[in-house]
Structure formats: C-alpha cells, structure tokens
Design goal:
The protein is α+β, with helices and mostly antiparallel strands. The chain is 38% helix and 19% strand. The chain is built from four helices and four strands. 28% of the residues are buried. The mean pLDDT is 94.
C-alpha cells in the first residue's frame, strides 16, 4: 500500500507551477517559502538569476510581535516586502506560491503585498 507523502506532492506541484512561471526584468517572480517555523519571501529576476529583494520572519523588523509562520506574521512580512520592493523600483510581480495551496498564510501574505502596492 502506497503512502501519501505530503512534502513530495507539494514539490511536484511546485515543479509543475515553475514550468509556466518565469520572472523577467519587468515582472520579477515573488517566491514564498513556508517552513514549520518561518516564512521567507524573495523577488527574483530569473533572466539574470538575481534576487532583487528578500524578507523573512527571522528579521527583527518582522519578528517583533509575531510568533511562527501564522497569518499575522504573513501580513507583516507582506507589508515589509512590498515596501522594500517599491524602494527597489519593483511595481508588478508574478506570484510563485511554492506549491502551497492559496489560502491561509499564503493568501494573507499575497493580500498584504497587494495592499503595500505590488501588482500581481
């Protein structure tokens, strides 16, 4: 009897998504990584292979007042990342949810980025 491997299924979804999503200079890729303890987000230009902006819940600016990768942390991280992206001149991005379902932490992160001025 085959066992369902949640992590392997997420990786398969992420690979399938990445076949279609590509970050350019005009619209870089906003990549979200979620672990059991933290959230990480990067804005990546795939043409050059360079990270333009990054933020995570490890940073003191984001960490103050939030614990773990919950919705509150995601909203704070999205606001910080949107602010940094606008300072770097990034207005529009392509959203890469990393194979995670678009609800809960991932959707609240995306909404906070949109409120901060990023266009998806």
């Amino acid at each position: 009897m085959a066992r369902f491997n949640r992590a392997a299924e997420r990786v398969k979804r992420h690979k399938r998504i990445r076949r279609h999503i590509r970050g350019t200079s005009e619209r870089p890729r906003l990549c979200v990584t979620k672990t059991l303890r933290h959230l990480y987000a990067q804005v990546i230009d795939d043409e050059v292979g360079r990270t333009l902006v990054q933020a995570s819940t490890l940073e003191p600016q984001v960490r103050a007042g939030v614990t773990g990768p919950n919705v509150a942390a995601a909203e704070k991280l999205g606001a910080v990342l949107a602010e940094r992206a606008s300072e770097a001149g990034v207005e529009a991005v392509v959203f890469d949810r990393g194979g995670h379902p678009y609800h809960g932490v991932i959707s609240s992160f995306a909404e906070a980025c949109r409120k901060g001025g990023l266009r998806f």
